[in-house]
Amino acid sequence: MGTFTTSDGVGLTYHGEAGDPLICLPGGPMQASSYLGGLPLPDLIRLDLRGTGESEKADSYRADHVVDDVEALRQHLGLDRIRLLGHSAGGTLAILYATRFPQHVKELVLVAPSARVVGIDVTDDDRRAVALKRSGEPWYAEAIQGFEQIWAGNFSAEAFAKIAPFHYGRWDDEARALEDHPRNDEAAAEYYAEGAFDPARVRAALQNLDVPTVFVAGEYDVSLPPNRAREYAELIPGARFVSQAGAGHFPWVDDPVAFAAAVQRIP
């Protein structure tokens, strides 16, 4: 574990030590990085984003400001080029960093990344098509009720709690444990605030990105359904797209062996 200070004076904590680390950026957005502790990969550093985990709170949590924290970590580690893994909303940070500082990125791993940063709209129909594939699961009847409530405009915590099984290929004790990891809701509300990024500019910058990239998506991911995942991956020149069979939004939990094999075969 180590600590460093950002350009605006916020003390941040990271977990892990390695000479050539894979720096892991958590999603949520703004969820404690502890949920990434089970990643079946060597030489990891997990960053507790500002206001999460063991890092200090801050005045701003907008995604573009959090990107500056990634750059501060690179400088703190004394690395000219870094390997980055972004999961879910952490994929937004990874993309924003790679397009702003391409000279400092050696490899990019995107795991079920949020499509908002490139302006891809995931529709209710996209999610419904994936959800229907799980109709044989014992938890399906109750979980689909949650989705029906959300699609009808009920965005209550209870409705979202019901759909939790849809985020995993295996709804077991290990999956349930991930649901308990803390998130900074105040920070999450600001993360995607207006001005954080311009999707059109991000897409244009991606056209010139020359960084070895692997894009891992889950076959059953309702957050980033397979059709939208492939659309996203095609925006990144040379990216290797992996659709992990039987996996949801946390593919390393559903099949750690398959996940590790996919990530370690960077183009």
How would you summarize what this structure contains?
This protein has 11 helices and 8 strands.
Would you kindly provide a written description of the structure presented here, covering whatever features stand out?
A hairpin with a 5-residue loop joins β1 and β2. The chain has one domain: Rossmann fold. The two termini are 30 Å apart. By secondary structure, it is an alpha/beta fold. The mean pLDDT is 95. 45% of the residues are buried. The chain has eleven helices and eight strands. The protein is 35% helix and 16% strand. Strands 1-2-4-3-5-6-7-8 form an eight-stranded mixed sheet, with helices on both faces.
Keyword list:
267 residues, alpha/beta, Rossmann fold, eight-stranded mixed beta sheet, 11 helices, 8 strands
Structural class: alpha/beta
**Distance linking N and C termini:** 30 Å
Count of individual helical segments: 11
**Helicity level, as a percent range?**
25-40%
Rg from alpha-carbon coordinates? 18 Å
Percent of sequence in beta strands? 15-25%
